[in-house]
Amino acid sequence: MNNVYFDVGISHVNKRGEQLCGDHVDVVKMEDGSKIVVLADGLGSGVKASILSILTAKIISTMMANQMSLEDCVQTIINTLPVCKERQLAYSTFSFVYLHANSRVADIVQYDNPKALVFRDGKQLGYNETVEIIDGKQISRTRITLQEGDYMLLMSDGVLFASKGQILDLQWDEKQIATYMEQSLQLQENFDAKTFSSLLLQECLSHYDNQPGDDISVCAIRLCKRKNANILIGPPKNPDDVDKMMRLFFSRDGYHVVCGGTTSQLCAKYLYKPIKMNQVYANTNVPPTCSIEGVDLVSEGSVTIQKVLEYAKDHTHMNELYTYWTYQDDGASKIAKLLFDEVSDIHFYVGLAKNPAHQEHQSVSYGHKMEMIEQLVAELLKLDKKVKVNYF
Predict the structure, then answer these.
(1) What spatial distance separates the first Cα and last Cα of the chain, rounded to whole Å?
(2) Can you give the residue range of the structural domain that contains 255?
(3) Are residues 243 and 107 in the same domain?
(4) What is the total count of domains within the chain?
(5) CB-based contacts of 95, cutoff 8 Å, min separation 6
(6) Per-residue pLDDT tens over the stretch 161-172
(7) Which of 50, 155, 297, 387 has the highest CB neighbour count under 10 A?
(8) Which PANTHER family match (predicted)?
């Protein structure tokens, strides 16, 4: 398996009063880990713009995935999509990136969208472009070899010049946007792609006074090293399987997280290490964590996982809670940061034993716990994490 992967995060909001977004982002995953990412911005807004952007993105991503030429893609778009009677424009603007997993090369192709921004070591990285004329359209092309930790931003034109009312804020240009993102990276250098895209989207919304005058779409791409996380939740149904469960859990490399009081006691006994209580954090809604030598994080079980699930559902949607869990040190926040920001591959080791202490409390019942884990797995899959669940 390739030891790096491309983390892709998408954030968007519709123009005020519109039910559909006139922008569309399409992501195609190749067998070798490479990805094709297309951001298309349909002409105007609403239903027509949505159709235009979806068709444009689908045509480009499908044809490029099948190794068709850029010239064929553009000509197909021109011949397929209807022409606007007023402006005589046949298709939406677009940006797309072919991310090559084996070489870490990014081929960037852009037509009339805001210029893609690249960041390395917290600073904007300049790059050269070559321009081609295809069927009368000016297309720019760029090839960049990415490094681990690099970020890339693709944007629709709703990002530029965002402002209240009808007067455009000409100071909110590509240079100022890049400066804002640089400042964000100075505060924290390890945002996942979803949060990095959310940072720019939320700033644009503030410029619009939360009344966007255009569809806003931001797609962030981050090149990361593959890392593993192993999450142990609950004791096994058969007590004789404790040693087997622990051996498998600790045999995998990466981070090791243990959730649950009984589970942590079994883990401590297996490792012949004591459990030490940590300080109580300000967030009283989440139980305090513990420490066991040889384990990266020891937390309470169901209540903590419930909070992580809340963060995960928000993270895959509007991501409005990232400012909270990013900067907190309680167990749920630490697990969220690990799962969202740090790792690519996640192995759950789930014990099926029923906890008698939970049977009187419907909110943490056995069935509810299993449902929480299933929902958390579903949210992590939306983030393109590789997830495996082992039941005992």
Answers:
(1) 27
(2) 228-391
(3) no
(4) 2
(5) 38, 39, 108, 109, 110, 111, 113, 116, 154, 155
(6) 888 877 788 889
(7) 155
(8) STAGE II SPORULATION PROTEIN E, STAGE II SPORULATION PROTEIN E-RELATED
